[in-house]
Amino acid sequence: QVELVESGGGLVQPGGSLRLSCAASGFSLEGRAIAWFRQAPGKEREGVACISGADYMTKYADSVKSRFTISRDSDKNAMYLQMNSSEPEDTAIYYCAARSPSTFSQRICSPEATFYDHWGQGTQVTVSS
């Protein structure tokens, strides 16, 4: 069974750090474009960060550049989102996503949700004092 499961969400104070994890089962993340998205109440789902299948390219939303870092660990078959200098505006449900492997997605990734085939159920992040 193909599954992505997020963990690591919770309450963090403004300026604090949080590390989200996403474990894959039933398939390998290696060679796949992967991404993190978020959705705040009343807002559309937003691409936060992505990395291409061969790790050639990473992209970040302007709102998180220099604060968030996306990474993957092929040995653990997992992906991560390191969130630093958190802001109240980062409060949202965070989702991990992966695309089926292809030559096309080895070198690129996309902040568009339609680019990805597999999704996790989400983990809540709340930034508040």
The secondary-structure element order is: EEEEEEEEEEE
Percentage of residues in DSSP E strands: 35-45%
Structure annotation, total helices: 0
Please give the share of residues in helix. Answer: under 10%
Q: Biggest sheet, in brief?
A: 7 strands, mixed
Shape, principal axes of CA atoms: globular
Instruction: Describe the oligomeric state of these chains in a short phrase.
Output: single chain
Low-confidence stretches: none
Report the radius of gyration as a whole number of Å: 14 Å
State the end-to-end distance: 39 Å
Residue-averaged pLDDT, rounded?
95
* Global structural class: mainly beta
Number of strands: 11
Would you kindly provide a written description of the structure presented here, covering whatever features stand out?
The chain has 129 residues and is mainly β. The protein is 0% helix and 44% strand. The protein has no helices and eleven strands. Strands 2, 4, 5, 6, 9, 10 and 11 form a seven-stranded mixed β-sheet that branches. A hairpin with a 6-residue loop joins strand 5 and strand 6. The N and C termini lie far apart (39 Å). The mean pLDDT is 95.
